[in-house]
Amino acid sequence: MSGWSHFRHSSVLRLVAANSAWLTAERLVRALLGLLVGAWGARYLGPANYGTLAYVLSYVALFLPFATLSADAIVVRNIAQQPHDAPRTLGSMLALRVAFGLLVWLLAIGGMAAFSRDRELTALVAIVGGTLLFQAGDVVDLWLQSQTQSRRTVIAKLVATLATAGLRIALILAEAPLVAFAAAVLVEAALTAGTLALTYRRFRTDHPWGATLKDSKTLLAEAWPFVLSGCAVMLYMRIDQVMIKQMLGTHELGIYAAATTLSNFWQMVPTVLSISLAPFLARQRLEDFARYERSVVLIFRAFFFAGVLIALFTIVTAQWVVPALFGQAYASAAGVLALHVTSNVFCFLGIAHSLWLVNERRFAVRLWGTLAAGVAVVAINVTLLPVLGVFGACVAAIVSQAIAALLINVVLDRRGLKLQIEAITFIKA
Description:
Blueprint: H1 3-9, H2 12-61, H3 64-68, H4 72-81, H5 86-115, H6 119-128, H7 131-134, H8 138-146, H9 150-173, H10 178-202, H11 213-248, H12 250-265, H13 268-287, H14 289-326, H15 333-340, H16 343-359, H17 363-388, H18 390-407, H19 409-412, H20 414-425
Helix pairs in contact: 2-6, 2-9, 2-11, 2-12, 2-13, 4-8, 5-6, 5-8, 5-11, 6-10, 8-10, 9-10, 11-12, 11-17, 11-18, 12-15, 13-14, 13-16, 14-15, 14-16, 14-20, 16-18, 17-18
C-alpha cells in the first residue's frame, strides 16, 4: 500500500477530523469575525486611524512573550507527568504571569512615553497594553488542555469573541472614536479571562491553587528559551508594522494592515490541520519510520501547493475583494495583498516543517530560523521601505518566510530539506 493510500484510507483520518472539530470551529468563527468585523471597522476608521490602531497592537504584541513567559507546553507537560502537583504548578504560573504582565505593561507604557511625544499613542498603549495582564487567565486554558477538556475552552473563548464582535459593531454604528476601539481590545481580553474563570469553577483541580517560590523558580528556569523564541517570532511577525509607521506614517500602515489581514486569514487552514495531524505523525514515527517520512512528504506537498493555490486565487480576486470589504479608501491595498499573499506559500510549508521538527526534536532549527528571519525583516525593511514603500515590507515578508521555512534548512536540517525538495519537485532527493 502506498504512503498516500495508507494516509487516505487510514482510520486515523477520522480521528483527526473528530479531534479537530471544536478547534476548527473556534478558529473559523474567530477568523471570520475578525475579518468581517475588522474590515467594517477599518472602513469606518479610515486608513490613518486604522493604521494607528494596528501600530499600537503590534507594539504591544512585542511584549507578549514576556507576559506569558511562552511556557504553555511546560505547564501542560508538568501537569500530565505530576498531576498531584497541578495546583502548585498552576498557581505558580498564574502568579508569574500576573507579575510579569504588570511589569511589561508598565514598560510598554514607559517605552512609548519615552520615545514618542504623542500623548494619544501613549494612552492607546496604556489601554491595549492592559491585555498583557489578562493573559494570566489563559492558565485556566492550560489546565483544561491537560485534562483533554478543550471543548470547554473553545466555548468560553467563543462567548467572549461573539460578545466583543457585537460591541465593535455597536461602536461602528455609534460612530465611536478610535479610543473606544482600543478599549474593545481590552474588553475582549477581560471577557476571555472572565469566561475561563467561570469555566474553571465547573471543572476545578482537587485542591486550591497555591504559588511557591521553588516552583516559580523552576518554571522561570525552563521558560527562558521559550521566551527568547517567542520574542523572535513576534519580532519577525510584528516589527514590520512598527517600522512602517515610523518610516512611512499611519496612512500607509493602514493600507498595509488591511492587506495583511486578508493575507493572514488563510493561515488558519494549515494551523488547524497541523495541530490535528501532530498526534498521528508522532504515533506513526514510533510504528514505521519509513511510512512516517512518506507521510511527512505528503503533508509538505499538500501544504505547499495549498499555499500556491490560495495565493493564485487571492491574486486574481484581490482587486475586487479589497474594495468590497474595506472600501475604496483601501483600493491600493489590492496590489499589496497580491504580493504579500505569496509569502503564505512559505508560511504554509514552514508550519508543515514544524511538525517534522517537533517529532525529530530539532527545536533549535526553528529558533535559529526565526531569529534569522527576524534579522532579515529588519534589514530588508530598512533598505526597501524608503524605496518601495509598503511593497518593500511585502518583499521582507516573503524573504523572511522563505528563510524560516526553507533556506535555514540548507545549514541546519539537511534531511528536512531533502524531504521538502521531494515534496515540491516530485523527485526523490
